[in-house]
Write a structure and sequence with these properties.
This protein is an alpha+beta fold and 153 residues long. The chain has a domain of 95 residues: Immunoglobulin-like (Sandwich), CATH 2.60.40. It contains 2 helices and 14 strands. A hairpin with a 2-residue loop joins strand 7 and strand 8.
Amino acid sequence: MIANWKIALVLSVLCVGCSGGSGDPDLAAAKGKVMYQGKPVPRAHVSFIPKNGAMAVGTTNDQGEFVLATKGRAGAVIGEHRVTVAAMDTPPMTSTTPVEIGSPEYLKMTQAPAPKAPKSLIPEKFSKSDSSGLTQMIDADASKNDLIVDLGS
């Protein structure tokens, strides 16, 4: 009789522990656009950092538009966020085709000068949370989360 009681207690604890409550804060859908000097910023990495909870990230398209996601889930934690934006002038990849060692293509690649280090397309202060000065509010009402991240002129 006592053994049945202990089994029931263990099963109850396991059921409560596995009930699906993740403890993660609620998210709200959020999207936006990054602008610098009146123009959209393409291929920028955008981070929204809340006081509590996981950071949301997105990457801008050629029109400077982004959609935020948090830990693989669509949206961002509701509340105020510090925002960072990083945009580098990186050359596009020229080829992903494997090259045979010793081939003319291989020799051309190995004798070419090293590529230049990427250059920031925006002031670098925007890439650090302690210096960006950017903040945004994520509202529980997703219709209010069409954001503009304006980096100024």
